[in-house]
Specification:
With 1375 residues, the protein is of the alpha+beta class. The chain contains 39 helices and 47 strands. Helix 30 runs antiparallel to helix 31. The radius of gyration is 46 Å and the shape is flat.
Length: 1375
């Protein structure tokens, strides 16, 4: 954590910013500029003392005296008359006076000089104090600045005139405290010039006006110009004013050079001392006359400089040695053998002993009572079963849509205006609630999106009809919806096509009746807009006029009050200014750092008056209403508009913007919303927070820094017109409706959706295949043959486009293609095309409600031919369960014929029932294939086909939506079997492809509408129900020897559940089944049958053991366990359960042993652990509940027991293999070993063990780095792979601060000639090994600490003492 800086250090940083101009600068102006200026002068004075020590030279004294005068004159950033007169009277030939006129951004240098022509004169030199911000920002580097900017000389006699000095001092005092607005920066705000206080001021008052006056009594002179490169910057970040470099520092540099060049008292030696850093480089190139001066100066300064350098060097050396010693890695000697192998198991022992010894710990969560199973399942499913959440969402939306449709049929349009207004409010709330409920549920689903659009537009028609009666002005404006906007909808039912035609008729009627067909109520605020006409012509506009008059009266009253306030404050300002003229400053400079004190205990009256004068300000007055009359009327309308009209506008605009616009580009954010404008908030008669509202593209003066104007000022500068420029703005989409040129359309919701993997995906982006297009022309189709994708039949490519061309010929062309072999209907692209063509509503037709596209369905012969082709294709695919795409297209067309052609309805029903039987057979076959699959891929593939087949089978039940038909037992059995199959497969709806997800949504909404029909069929055929559901439970074995005695239909909120109880007998215990007849959920004893529930399958332990494998499960027979997996892993029978703390547990029955999987987390984390990472990372720990031994198996062979695996004996506390014994990670020996590898390898990845063989030595394994160390005869760790040992001297002579390095020295193997033992001898060659990972650095004292993280790789670098460098391979990893 950074240390808290003192005020002195913060002030020093502020001064440093102005001196050095570092890259990182503050974002706002310093608040202590006067103190910084004094400090800079003091430091300059101190520098002259050190540069010219002990000298009494007049030149140095003159410079110091001038700087002291500048500090007194410019005290606290202001000039005072008294200090100026004192400075003028004491001016001599050697000194000068530096004056900073802060408010005018100007500076003056005044000095005396003697001219041979004009005698004694006083020279005035003026220049700009700080450059304009615009120039600073435009400069690529430093600015070139010439000093002075202007110069005038006047006779000394005139300057010595006391009256002249008094008037000049008074002028400069006022100029330094008063800002003259005419010369300040300005900006246009609210159609008027406004004072800009953040930019620099034009110095004209001093550089032009004052200098011109002086020139009248003197003469203009042209001194030699000094050019200086000036560095400056403008840094602004959320500050009232930007940071600018202190002008004082810029002047001091120029004054130093000018003083040395101009003032006669300075010798050549003084000039050389000011350039001391450059003398050593210049002494050999200067003229002979200066060589002696150079050498004398250098000879005097060398001893002083040498002493300073020597002292600094010694301090640095001592600090450096201490730092090196502190960061050097310690190396301790190690024993070759250890005897204490007991594992403390600080983190895991308690858990393990509880598993073995505590009977309470084995107790598992009780099952819920059978009577509460559906509720418990429903509550759990909210967070753990996505399919239930998914289904409930669409069940709810289906119920909402049906309720809205029925309500609109029941309630007629009211006759009274008051009733119409209330109806507008009610319907607008219904539209808003419905759209919020739908949200993104129908995105990328054109069929259901069309249902939503139809529902919303039907609500809008009812609302619009009431709004016209309530507000007659509305009928003169276009509604904003084109007549053909609904032609693109994909409608599957005939009754919905009738609803669509009614909406289309209403829009046509509104379009014919409007006076301004090109204007809507959403256009920009201008003359003739809806808000203005309502203000002028509405029968209820009296309230608007009264509000307008009230606002104008209040505005005029507040303006007069502001005028009176300005007069009062101006008088106060003038009184302060008069008193300031005669008041004298009692503050004097004290100390070397610019601190100030008083000559008595009283407050300085002069400074107090200056403070009051600088803070004399007045806030601007802004008129509350815009000056433009149309905008003012629109503002009044927005404040007092009837709530029902606003609700109508908001609901209509929401339909247009969220549904009718395709990816509109957001506009610029408004400066302020009208409802947030404080001047008008009290006048608002309602508090609706609509998305569509008035907003301004410009700020109000009240929320800018221009709201305060410094005195003196004029009434025009204080009383300003309104600064708002109002237009309509949509908060939701962040756009300006008046700037939109896009025509509203629903086509982007109903585009054809060809899969991206299809060669026909190119048509997704083709404008000819847009939902609202007429399709490609015949010429375009023929010409496109060259664009046929590779591998695609050109005849299919042409036929695909031909089907999309035209509207009236669509169905005859489809009949042609069904009878030909041009198009492969088994592809996803063909299915998408058929679905799009078969459902699109198309243009309307005057003589029927079904439109142009479906007029051909009135031809009976056409319909019969179409059914004949469908039947032939159905026969062809009846045994091919893979051809779900063709089946989808055939059922889609069959349902269309059923809906639209009454003369062949029976044939269509027969066809759909035939398709139902075929798809039901597919479901049974695929379910059997999935259960018999030996690999996960085959099971997954069969499950996906079974899901599609089940959805197709259920889709055929749409015929029961149109007629009052009963389900026969065979149809009921098909429905139940398909429903259960959907849940047994157990796919997460969020993981399905978009096409399958759309089919599932359609199926759920259909099932919701069939709820009562299905329930009545089940109540009439309970035998069919029992036979259907028991077939899924363990292959139906549960029902062979048991008899259902009770079927109960549960009440709300579980009214979709049916409970079936079976009688217990000698073979089977009592069993209870719960069945959800809409979704297909099947529970046996409270547990789902079939696929392992998603909550269990997604648990960490199941994912760790089985990954994403498709797991089938049955209730477990093992005491306390919930599920037994159908698969057996290498003789391990797997059981799953949960403890009271909701932890998942896994047990395996292996021969006569029961193994429990121990979670890895109990052995510790990070650098606190019971077992090294080699024994728990990517390992599984099976605890034998009988022997108390944990076998540690690698994850790759987790189902295979091996004799060579590590085994942890809990009771004896040792971990062993047949040849090795583990050293406890908490032992002293392990800690000594780990200390040698700090920051080189993580402690948890170090494994220390003792081999059991006689004469073996303590061994350290770094498995990630493939390194093995052992303790040699010298007590050091030696590595066989690197043929080196850890060097006791860890100082490598380089890379100080790199604490991840490990210094090694090479060893050579030798054999003892007497004993024959092999031993190692250290050599001189040393090397460094360093991890190869991410680098982290941190400051540590005078140096940095570098840590390289170990990512299981390292590099080796050889220390070359001869050349003084590190040698390594081209790639250090290649050892």
């Amino acid at each position: 954590m950074a240390a808290i800086r003192s005020s002195e250090s913060r002030f020093l940083e502020d001064v440093f910013n102005h001196v050095a101009l570092p890259p990182r600068l503050p974002g706002r102006q310093d608040v202590n500029i006067p103190t910084i200026e004094r400090n800079l002068v003091d430091r300059f004075l101190e520098a002259t003392s050190k540069l010219f020590p002990g000298t009494s030279d007049n030149g140095v004294s003159s410079l110091r005296s001038s700087l002291e005068t500048a500090r007194r004159v410019n005290l606290n950033g202001r000039l005072t008359k008294a200090s100026l007169i004192t400075a003028f009277s004491s001016l001599n030939y050697t000194d000068f006076v530096l004056i900073h006129v802060g408010q005018q951004n100007a500076a003056l240098i005044i000095r005396r000089e003697k001219s041979s022509t004009h005698g004694d004169e006083v020279l005035f030199e003026s220049f700009e104090a700080s450059p304009m911000s615009e120039n600073v920002l435009a400069a690529k580097g430093a600015l070139q600045w010439y000093f002075p900017g202007n110069a005038v000389a006047i006779p000394l006699s005139d300057f010595d005139n006391p009256r002249f000095q008094e008037e000049l001092a008074l002028f400069l005092e006022k100029a330094s405290t008063e800002s003259i607005k005419q010369f300040a920066a300005h900006i246009v705000k609210a159609v008027s010039l406004t004072y800009e206080s953040r930019d620099t001021v034009d110095p004209t008052v001093v550089t032009s006006m004052l200098m011109t006056i002086l020139e009248v009594i003197g003469r203009r002179v042209f001194p030699t110009l000094l050019r200086k490169n000036v560095g400056d910057d403008v840094s602004w970040n959320n500050g009232a004013a930007p940071w600018r470099r202190c002008p004082f520092w810029l002047w001091l540099g120029a004054i130093k050079v000018q003083a040395f060049d101009v003032l006669p008292a300075f010798s050549a030696s003084h000039r050389l001392r000011s350039r001391h850093p450059f003398l050593e480089n210049e002494k050999d190139t200067v003229a002979i006359s200066l060589a002696v001066e150079y050498e004398q100066l250098l000879s005097r300064s060398r001893p002083v400089l040498a002493q300073s350098v020597s002292s600094a060097t010694e301090q640095i050396r001592a600090t450096w040695e201490a730092m090196k010693k502190a960061i050097q890695r310690p190396v301790f000697l190690l024993p070759q053998r250890v005897n204490d192998f007991f594992l403390q198991l600080r983190f895991s022992r308690e858990y393990l002993e509880q598993v073995l010894n505590s009977a309470q710990f084995h107790s598992l969560a009780r099952s819920n009572y059978i009577q509460s199973l559906p509720q418990a399942y429903r509550h759990a499913a909210r967070s753990t079963k996505p399919s239930t959440v998914f289904a409930n969402r669409y069940f709810f939306l289906s119920d909402e849509e049906i309720e809205i449709e029925q309500e609109l049929i029941k309630i007629p349009t009211p006759l009274l205006a008051s009733d119409c207004k209330q109806k507008c409010l009610d319907i607008s709330k219904t539209i808003e609630n419905y759209l919020n409920q739908v949200g993104a549920s129908y995105d990328f689903n054109p069929e259901q999106k069309s249902v939503m659009l139809l529902t919303v537009m039907e609500l809008w028609v009812a609302m619009d009809s009431s709004a016209i009666k309530a507000f007659g002005v509305l009928k003169d404006y276009n509604v904003g919806f084109p007549v053909n906007i609904l032609d693109v909808l994909q409608i599957s039912r005939q009754k919905d096509m009738h609803r669509l035609q009614k909406i289309r008729t209403h829009i046509q009627m509104r379009e014919k009746a409007c006076k301004y067909p090109k204007l809507t109520i959403f256009r920009n605020v201008q003359k003739g807009c809806f808000a203005e006409r309502y203000y002028e012509e509405s029968t209820e506009n009296h309230a608007l006029h009264e509000l307008h008059e009230l606002i104008e009266d209040d505005a005029e009253r507040s303006r007069k009050e502001k005028e009176q306030e300005l007069q009062t404050k101006s008088l106060e300002y003038e009184e302060i200014a008069r008193e300031l003229i005669v008041a004298k400053c009692t503050r004097v400079v004290n100390g070397s750092r610019g601190m100030t004190s008083h000559d008595d205990d009283d407050v300085c009256r002069h400074c107090q008056l200056l403070f009051w004068k600088s803070n004399c300000t007045i806030r601007v007055h802004e008129h509350p209403l815009p000056a433009d009359l149309a905008q003012a009327k629109a503002t009044i309308f927005e404040l007092a508009c009837p709530e029902s009209l606003l609700a109508y506008r908001e609901a209509t605009w929401r339909i247009l913007d969220t549904l009718g616009l395709s990816d509109p580009l957001p506009g610029d954010n408004p400066r302020i919303l009208l409802r947030n404008y404080k001047r008008l908030v009290p006048y608002a008669t309602r508090r609706r927070l609509d998305s569509f509202c008035l907003a301004s593209t410009s700020k109000s003066l009240k929320i800018t820094h221009y709201t305060v104007v410094p005195l003196p000022t004029s009434l025009e500068a204080v009383c300003k017109p309104n600064g708002l420029h109002l237009n309509y703005f949509d908060i939701r989409l962040e756009l300006w409706p008046g700037q939109l040129y896009q025509k509203p359309s629903f086509a982007h919701h109903c585009r054809i959706q060809i899969p991206s993997t299809s060669p026909f995906a190119m048509f997704n982006s083709s404008s000819s295949f847009d939902a609202d297009s007429m399709g490609p022309s015949s010429y375009d189709i023929v010409a496109s043959q060259t664009k046929c994708p590779p591998g695609t039949n050109v005849h299919e490519f042409i036929a695909f486009q031909t089907l999309f061309a035209g509207k009236a010929r669509r169905w005859p062309q489809l009949l042609v293609e069904l009878g030909s072999s041009n198009i492969n209907f088994s592809t996803d692209a063909a299915t998408s095309l058929v679905h799009f063509l078969a459902l699109q509503a198309g243009p309307g037709q005057a003589d029927n409600d079904i439109g142009v596209i479906y007029a051909v369905f009135e031809d009976t012969r056409f319909c019969e031919k179409l059914m004949s082709q469908l039947d032939q294709r159905l026969e062809a695919i009846s045994t091919n369960w893979r051809d779900t795409n063709s089946m989808e297209s055939l059922i889609t067309i069959g349902l269309r014929v059923f809906e639209l052609c009454n003369r062949v309805t029976e044939k269509a029903i027969i066809f759909l029932e035939k398709a139902r039987k075929i798809t039901n057979n597919w479901v049974a076959t695929l379910r059997s294939e999935a259960q018999q699959a030996t690999d996960a891929d085959t099971a997954l593939r069969c499950s996906k086909y079974a899901l599609s087949a089940a959805l197709l089978c259920r889709r055929t039940f749409a015929i029961y939506l149109e007629e009052d038909r009963d389900l026969d037992p065979a149809a009921l059995q098909c429905f139940i079997q398909s429903s259960v199959t959907l849940q047994v497969i157990g796919e997460n709806p969020n993981n399905l492809t978009q096409t399958v997800k759309n089919s599932l949504v359609r199926d759920l909404k259909m099932a919701s509408q069939l709820k009562q029909i299905i329930l009545l069929a089940i109540q009439s055929n309970e035998v069919t129900l029992v036979a259907s559901v028991t077939g899924f439970w363990h292959g139906g074995k549960g029902s062979l020897s048991s008899e259902a005695v009770c079927v109960e239909y549960l009440s709300k909120p579980d009214d979709r559940w049916i409970q079936i109880e079976f009688v217990a007998n000698s073979h089977v215990q009592k069993q209870v089944i719960h069945f959800n007849f809409l979704e297909g959920h099947l529970l046996v004893m409270g547990k789902p049958v079939g696929k392992l529930p998603a909550e269990w399958a997604k648990s960490k332990v199941v994912q760790f053991l089985f990954g994403s494998q498709n797991l089938l499960a049955f209730p477990s027979h093992l005491t306390g366990m919930s599920y037994m997996l159908a698969v057996t892993m290498n003789g391990h029978q797997i059981h799953l359960g949960r403890r009271k703390d909701d932890d998942f547990i896994v047990k395996a029955c292996f021969f006569d042993s029961i193994l429990e999987l121990i979670p890895t987390s109990i052995f510790g984390t990070g650098d606190e652990f019971d077992l090294p990472a080699d024994l728990f990372h990517e390992c599984v720990h099976w605890l034998d509940l009988k022997t108390g031994i944990i076998e540690i198996r690698p994850h790759r062979s987790l189902w295979i027991s091996k004799a060579g695996n590590w085994r942890l004996h809990i009771r004896s506390g040792q971990a062993t293999t047949p040849k090795l014994t583990l050293v406890d990670p908490h032992s002293t020996a392990f800690k000594l070993v780990a200390a040698k590898f700090y920051f080189f390898e993580w402690k948890r990845f170090i494994t220390v063990y003792q081999p059991k063989s006689i004469g073996s030595r303590l061994t350290v394994q770094l498995r990630r780095l493939e390194l093995l160390f052992f303790v040699n005869q010298r007590g050091l760790l030696e590595c066989s792979q690197l043929r080196a040992e850890i060097d006791p001297d860890q100082d490598a002579g380089t890379w100080y601060g790199l604490r991840s390095k490990l210094v090694l020295r090479d060893v050579a193997k030798k054999r003892d000639p007497f004993t024959g033992h092999v031993f190692s001898v250290p050599l001189r060659q040393r090397s460094i090994i360093v991890p190869m990972g991410d680098v982290k650095t941190e400051i540590s004292g005078p140096h940095v600490i570098v840590t390289v993280l170990n990512n299981a790789d390292y590099g080796k670098y050889v220390i070359n003492d001869v050349l003084g460098r590190l040698d390594c391979a081209a790639e250090p990893r290649l050892l």
